[in-house]
Q: What sequence folds into this?
């Protein structure tokens, strides 16, 4: 009799089963809503050979529906560092994301990302016998704050604030040091040479419109070139690909000549529109170079496949050639054919150097500041990683 | 020697065009079977990824190129799709380049027909939508909303395969075959880095160097580079196609160009000394 | 129909290639057609995929919130006010929306992809410590077993053996310090030095003197190597494109396409030769 009672009691205990260790159900943090997460630390007696079954039901009442079934080696917390961080225990603990339940058709709807209060039940089976069971409930909602992306926000704020501060500083004191760029010295030489030879300079602004940073930089450099040209009484020819760039170039030339005290020498037709057909433009410019045999050719701005065609023809006329572009695919061709090439950011730096505009000077400084931060991160990161520590790496991880 | 080199430097460039044309055309008539083709780690990584996914995995293939890059990227697309269909994965194809829509459809339907894949059940072709990165953002929220209809005007929601796919993050793999931007970089910046799905792809030779940084940083797994990459992939799936056949022509062209670069440099240095005096 | 398609494809390809000889009327026809067709195609795609799918179908549908679509349509329509100078200022609202939306999406995405993650990936240990855990040793053992099995199965070295050996070597390089691990460390160091020095090259706020000069000199060397690789890759890309067209031209030379390639080629050469003779006469006339 006593034995029979003991058996009944034991069976009842097994049927009621123990709870999962550290079980909790919560809204997934830092998402656009829709998901709740069930997480637990383990099963009493270890999780070897355990299979979990996850079911959901509306909190208001209703049938349980199975949504996932997996071995304990799967769905480890380490797969979701955005939610659980980088604790070592995450490699042994499990979780399961579940879609929050939505109202039935016809019932009043919920705002986007929100769900009904959803009950989540997780059962643990070992050898077909249920050994643990836990239940909890939560509703999904969208979150304003995504903690896993905080590092990106810090970077954005740091760079943003740095840029504004440096621009403001450059406004107060435009005497900002910018190192001399070798290509710029060569420009001066080229203008002098053109004057001596009595031949013009051909200046191209690239194929992009005024919305491109490289075109803005190019036009800004043109302003400075035109001043020197005006003071040396030489001539600069600016065949344009884009009508808007043409009007800006004409204006810039006029200003340059005026600033040099030679407004009478300005000829509006020194800058003119050719065509917006890539290779027709090249053909026209090549023809111009062969006819005029310029003393110098400047290729500033953004270029495409025409770069080599232009620079080769310019080279064949014996002109000094100086290019400046941030078009990475075309840089090799300019480097191969030109006497000097401003590589990428050097183009913007040249523009800031020549124009001394606070906005450009401040931005240039802020880019340098960004580079210092990156160099520091690289050196520190390399050193910390050598010690085997991973915390530094995690600072720069945008976790999933 | 100097007069020869001087002549060489002054040679009409059209002779070079002609030589190059001959070098490329010759192997299309006479097979040379030049040696040296073996799978690079990056191509092997793409192959392993597709090979080791469980059957029926959901894969998005984005055709981010147009006919101008067809010789490089169409063989890649064909090889990858053949592999995907062979492994019985569920393929959703689309494109971010408007001028590639019809070409992509041809490639998808041809490779699907080879593998007897059924439209709507084994693969779907959604076509193109304007907006570049906005399309990716839109797909991350709801694919059915972004593409209410497939390329042929069928309701996307009515296709059996699409019933189980609503968001970008539900894909087991996204493959972008890109000739530029929008392409791999767009998919990484607005897709995989944000919504965390596995990313791989292929690109043209011009872009290989700039895309390699994403592989090195682990933002994508493997990269098929240019026609050579396609030939390597064809070799891995044991089904030679256009790329493998083109390797002879490409190699011969390369030999010619290397010879010209060397000759040009020698000529430059030989003639340099006397240039000033001329 | 297929023959017509073939003739058009061959004709346009050869028209474009004729630029290698010199600028000529064939090339001009090809170029203008290309621009026109691309724009026409784009407009049609835009009409069906945006206007019909995303606006018209929604407005004529049953959804209760279907009229919300009119808000973005209105913002988009404001862009068209640029054509009317008096109210052109209204287009700025649309631009403000486009730029605000674009920058809002682009800045965090670019910062994440190109700065934060790239910095994390570059800051690696310069020397890898072998993973002595039992898991890594087991993975190597399994890979070796798979490699041995692959070797037994095949008589000669084939692709499967090569792939199995590749995987074995990869696993071994994690659990032990092998040649492959050393090679990987070497590439890590090269990347580290490259990034470091190139960044120094692009410092504009300090004079390039002393150590900074040394770093920036190394930086420019790295840049030149990159440009060399880029140059080589571009050549490879262009050759692939040429090969692709050559293959199509060869395909269209067959009888089933009416010998499109040879016929058009001969006709074009004849016309170009005639033009050459005609223009030569003209030039001589001028000279006289």
A:
């Amino acid at each position: 009799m006593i034995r029979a009672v003991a058996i009944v009691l034991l069976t009842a205990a097994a049927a009621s089963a123990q709870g999962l260790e550290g079980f909790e159900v919560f809204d997934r943090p830092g998402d656009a809503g829709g998901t709740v997460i069930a997480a637990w630390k383990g099963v009493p007696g270890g999780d070897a050979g355990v299979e979990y079954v996850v079911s959901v039901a509306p909190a208001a009442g209703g049938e349980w529906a199975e949504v996932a079934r997996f071995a304990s080696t799967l769905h480890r917390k380490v797969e979701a560092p955005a939610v659980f961080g980088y604790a070592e225990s995450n490699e042994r603990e499990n979780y399961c994301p579940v879609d929050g339940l939505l109202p039935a058709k016809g019932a009043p709807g919920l705002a986007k990302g929100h769900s009904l209060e959803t009950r989540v039940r997780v059962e643990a089976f070992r050898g077909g016998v249920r050994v643990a069971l836990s239940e909890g409930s939560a509703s999904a909602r969208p979150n304003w704050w995504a903690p896993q992306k905080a590092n990106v926000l810090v970077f954005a704020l740091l760079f943003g604030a740095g840029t504004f501060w440096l621009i403001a500083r450059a406004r107060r004191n435009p005497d900002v040091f910018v190192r001399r760029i070798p290509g710029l010295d060569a420009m001066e030489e080229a203008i002098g040479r053109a004057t001596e030879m009595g031949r013009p300079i051909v200046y191209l602004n690239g194929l992009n419109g005024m919305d491109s940073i490289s075109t803005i930089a190019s036009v800004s450099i043109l302003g400075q070139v035109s001043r020197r040209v005006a003071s040396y009484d030489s001539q600069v020819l600016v065949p344009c690909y884009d009508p808007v760039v043409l009007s800006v170039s004409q204006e810039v030339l006029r200003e340059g000549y005026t600033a040099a005290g030679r407004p009478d020498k300005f000829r509006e037709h020194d800058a003119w529109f050719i065509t917006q057909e890539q290779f027709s433009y090249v053909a026209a410019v090549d023809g111009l170079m062969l006819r005029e045999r310029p003393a110098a050719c400047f290729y500033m701005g953004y270029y495409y496949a025409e770069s080599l065609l232009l620079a080769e023809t310019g080279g064949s006329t014996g002109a000094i050639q100086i290019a400046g572009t941030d078009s990475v695919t075309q840089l090799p061709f300019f480097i191969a054919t030109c006497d000097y090439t401003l590589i990428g950011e050097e183009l913007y730096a040249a523009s800031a150097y020549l124009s001394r505009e606070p906005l450009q000077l401040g931005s240039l400084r802020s880019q340098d500041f960004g580079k210092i931060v990156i160099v520091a991160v690289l050196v520190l990161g390399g050193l910390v990683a050598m010690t085997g520590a991973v915390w530094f790496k995690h600072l720069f991880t945008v976790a999933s | 020697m100097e007069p020869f080199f001087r002549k060489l430097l002054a040679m009409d460039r059209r002779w070079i065009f002609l030589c190059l044309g001959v070098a490329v055309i010759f192997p299309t008539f006479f097979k040379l079977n030049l040696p040296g083709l073996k799978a690079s780690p990056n191509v092997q990584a793409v192959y392993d990824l597709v090979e080791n996914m469980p059957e029926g995995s959901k894969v998005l293939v984005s055709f981010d190129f147009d006919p101008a890059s067809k010789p490089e990227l169409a063989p890649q697309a064909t090889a990858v799709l053949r592999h995907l269909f062979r492994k019985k994965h569920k393929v959703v194809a689309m494109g971010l380049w408007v001028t590639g829509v019809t070409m992509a459809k041809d490639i998808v339907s041809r490779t699907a027909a080879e593998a007897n894949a059924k439209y709507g059940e084994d693969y779907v072709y959604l076509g193109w939508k304007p907006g570049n990165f906005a399309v990716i953002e839109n797909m991350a929220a709801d694919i059915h909303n972004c593409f209410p209809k497939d390329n042929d005007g069928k309701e996307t929601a009515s296709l059996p395969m699409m019933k189980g796919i609503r968001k970008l993050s539900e894909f087991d793999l996204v493959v972008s075959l890109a000739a530029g931007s929008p392409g791999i970089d767009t998919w990484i910046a607005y897709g995989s880095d944000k919504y965390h799905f596995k990313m791989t792809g292929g690109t043209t030779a011009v872009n290989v160097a700039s895309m390699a940084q994403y592989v090195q940083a682990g933002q994508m797994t493997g990269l098929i580079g240019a026609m050579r990459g396609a030939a390597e992939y064809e070799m891995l799936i044991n089904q030679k196609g256009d790329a493998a056949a083109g390797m002879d022509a490409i190699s011969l062209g390369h030999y010619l160009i290397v010879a010209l670069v060397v000759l040009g440099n020698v000529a430059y240095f030989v003639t340099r000394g006397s240039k000033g005096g001329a | 129909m297929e023959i017509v398609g073939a003739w058009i494809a061959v004709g346009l390809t050869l028209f474009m290639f004729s630029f290698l000889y010199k600028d000529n009327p064939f090339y001009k026809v090809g170029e203008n057609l290309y621009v026109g067709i691309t724009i026409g195609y784009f407009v049609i795609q835009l009409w069906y995929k945006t206007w019909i799918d995303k606006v018209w179908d929604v407005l004529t549908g049953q959804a209760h919130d279907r009229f919300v679509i009119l808000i973005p349509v209105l913002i988009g329509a404001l862009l068209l006010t640029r054509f009317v100078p008096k109210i052109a200022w209204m287009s700025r609202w649309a631009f403000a929306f486009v730029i605000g939306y674009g920058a809002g999406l682009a800045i965090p995405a670019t910062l994440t992809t190109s700065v934060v993650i790239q910095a994390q990936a570059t800051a690696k240990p310069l020397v890898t410590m072998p993973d002595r855990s039992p898991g890594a040793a087991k993975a190597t053992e399994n890979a070796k077993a798979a490699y041995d099995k692959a070797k037994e199965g095949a008589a000669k070295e084939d692709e499967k053996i090569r792939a199995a050996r590749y995987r074995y070597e990869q696993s071994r390089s994690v659990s032990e310090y092998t040649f492959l691990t050393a090679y990987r460390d070497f590439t890590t160091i090269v990347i580290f030095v490259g990034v470091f020095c190139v960044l120094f090259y692009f410092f504009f706020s300090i004079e390039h003197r002393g150590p900074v000069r040394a770093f920036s000199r190394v930086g420019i060397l790295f840049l030149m190597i990159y440009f060399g690789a880029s140059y080589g890759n571009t050549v490879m890309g262009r050759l692939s494109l040429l090969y692709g067209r050559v293959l199509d031209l060869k395909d269209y030379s067959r009888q089933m396409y009416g010998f499109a390639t040879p016929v058009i080629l001969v006709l074009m050469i004849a016309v170009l030769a005639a033009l050459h003779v005609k223009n030569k006469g003209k030039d001589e006339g001028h000279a006289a």
Q: What stands out?
A: Residues 6-15 of chain A have pLDDT under 50 and may be disordered.
